[in-house]
Design a protein that fits this description.
Helix Hairpins; conserved putative lor/sdh protein from methanococcus maripaludis s2 fold; 5-stranded antiparallel β-sheet; 3 domains; alpha+beta; 22% helix
Length: 333
């Protein structure tokens, strides 16, 4: 029995000692003159978004459009309960009739010189007030009907039938997607090489669409965390295939590739950072074990980064799967 227990213990220790190596993806660092593509990820945005709202408060009686529906300028979008507005209009019309009748009757007296000038001015003032109230009541009734100020596509409905709409609260948002903008975040080291007329190529995999971009709008405020600047590329969209939120791949003319001479480059994800701020990569030696190797970095080139020291050409570097590594871990690639 003791022999069996001892044999089992030895077998278990041998099994633990022969732990399977960790599988990783590696890349052999290379120098010399190479070309690296500069590609960026962009997001499609509408050219312009218009929030449409009622000017007064009331209950929405009907919603006549749905999300994704194309609308034209002047088209009726929604109606508000107009009972109170109609009552106010009826009262304003009655006041207008009364004021006009008084103006006609007192006008005869004024022509005969039997009406004091003060009373005549008062009659005229009441007519003007009644006219103003009538125009305001008509406007309030018209405002119970919400029409599209511009043409486009209904992007979102914010209020439904039966709900109370507040003044200036968006009821629907109309998106102009006859042309769209592709927003791209550019690192601060590269933003200077892009102008409003820099050519670009854009592809959207979701709809298998490719085209050249148009005029570029450059942002002037950097993101505080990423130190990138947003630019927007104008793209024609006559068939309305491009929709807001789609992911696009962008290449810029004159920036499609950059030559790097006698410089090692690695994927951005290969470079890791310690708690003290120092940088390192995982390198693989001839005995297939992983080791931390301190590095210093240079310029970012698209999705790669220059390694100015620490890694020589020909050294194998881990690019994926480094999360499970520790010093001396055996790897397979």
């Amino acid at each position: 029995m003791l022999v069996l227990i001892f044999a089992s213990s030895c077998s278990e220790k041998q099994s633990q000692g022969a732990k399977a190596p960790t599988r990783v993806v590696t890349e052999v660092a290379g120098g010399g003159a190479e070309m690296y593509s500069r590609q960026y990820v962009g997001i499609v945005e509408e050219r312009e978004a218009t929030a449409v709202s009622f000017t007064g408060m009331g209950v929405v009686k009907r919603m006549l459009v749905s999300e994704g529906q194309a609308v034209s300028r002047g088209q009726l979008l929604a109606e508000m309960d107009d009972t109170q507005a109609r009552n106010m209009l009826a009262a304003a019309e009655a006041s207008m009739t009364q004021a006009n009748d008084a103006l006609q009757r007192y006008g005869l007296l004024h022509e005969n010189g039997s009406l004091p000038e003060v009373q005549w001015v008062e009659v005229q003032s009441k007519v003007a007030q009644a006219k103003s109230q009538l125009e305001s009541a008509r406007k309030n009734l018209e405002d119970c009907r919400l029409t599209a100020p511009v043409g486009g596509v209904i992007g979102r409905k914010h209020v439904g039938a039966g709900e109370t709409a507040m003044p200036s609260q968006a009821v629907v948002t109309i998106l102009d997607i006859s042309s769209v903008k592709v927003k791209v975040s550019i690192p601060e080291a590269e933003i200077g090489s892009i102008t409003s007329h820099t050519s670009s190529k854009i592809s959207v995999e979701a709809i298998h669409w490719n085209s050249n971009g148009g005029t570029i709008e450059k942002g002037v405020l950097a993101d505080a965390l990423t130190h990138t600047y947003d630019i927007r590329i104008l793209v024609p969209n006559p068939e309305r295939k491009l929709l807001p939120g789609m992911v696009a791949s962008v290449q810029f003319g004159g920036m499609e590739a950059q030559q790097v001479t006698q410089q090692v480059t690695l994927p951005l994800t290969a470079v890791q950072q310690k708690t003290d701020g120092s940088l390192f990569v995982w390198t693989v030696t001839s005995d297939s074990t992983a080791h931390r190797t301190p590095v210093t970095i240079g310029e970012t080139i698209g999705n790669r980064i220059q390694i100015t020291s620490g890694v020589d050409s020909g050294l194998r570097v881990v690019t994926e799967g480094y999360q499970k590594l520790s010093e001396g871990t055996r790897v397979v690639f």
